[in-house]
DNA sequence: CCGAAACCTGTCCGATCGGTCAGACCCTGA
DNA sequence: TCAGGGTCTGACCGATCGGACAGGTTTCGG
């Protein structure tokens, strides 16, 4: 009786939910969608899990725990050593839990497909090329995406900071990340 | 076109929708919520706009148009001049349309409040401090948020790139953005 | 003063959501 | 053989969603 020989329904549910949450977001995925992907009834999901939130919680538990472990590791370092360790640790964390992180942003793609955002995708694509100086090296692409995704977050999270000051520091940081000459 | 003597119902709807969309996301805001904030009936919204999507479209139209203008401006530049212009143009664009950009990420905060993400907010806060070396200068904070928001996007948008390679280039770009010594 | 257009409301609709429930179908150990 | 726990289903529920519709009220030009 090896418990992990065949994929149990429970594991199939988690796998399907992970895929669907990452593709269409948490809100954008209904229990019916998951049940359809697994090939069982919606009631079967709710037999194995105490609701939709419980599925999400179990799916993200390893990622959250790893985040907590990183936090504990960084807390033991002094102010000098903490910065490079935080950078490497964060990048590693995100890369290790790519799928889980994608769940967080999963609702955005569907939003971008609405008529209000018609053409924005192509604009973003060209902006990404402009940020790399129309180069295609992995280094340039990754840096461009870092700026593309980071600037809005930096602006959103600091709504009270003066726009002029924010502009100056963000342009400088972004240019450094991109290795733009003269920065 | 209506003359803007006092705020018309139509303008009140747009203002309330902008506020609510940014706070709770597009999906997270119902027509009933908007109507309640404005102080009118749900049917009144649908008299002034052809559905929920139309409200979003009108709300974001100026931002999309500005994005398009930036795209046209960048297209006329050569590969050398385009990079610094793209950086400044993008930062300016996002800062000018902070509210509109926030709508895109609006669904995330509510998601983060679910039990699955219990404690993650505090972890993120401490990680931000670690990335700045526990400093509080605006430059360091903005750079940390740029990295915090940019790394997941860079990982998500390049799912096929080898993790090891992505790790190396992201660590380097992030460290440069943060101005970490020895990068 | 009147009729039409603009504005707004209450009410209703079909669809879909997350979730509940009684019962049926196994498989297994006594 | 039968009892019982684990598994799963179909039917159903209340709530909420975006939206449609008929009709009432206000405003305004002729």
TrEMBL record, chains A, B:
Ranges of the DNA-binding region feature:
30-49
InterPro entries found in the cross-reference section: Homeodomain-like_sf, HTH-type_TetR-like_transc_reg, HTH_TetR
| Presence of the UniProt keyword Transcription regulation in the record | yes
Domain HTH tetR-type, chain residue ranges per copy: 7-67
Task: Name the Pfam families on file.
Answer: TetR_N
Which regions span the lipid bilayer?
none
Q: Which SUPFAM superfamilies match?
A: Homeodomain-like
Keywords in UniProt for this one? Answer: DNA-binding, Transcription, Transcription regulation
The protein's name: TetR/AcrR family transcriptional regulator
**Native source species:** Planomonospora alba
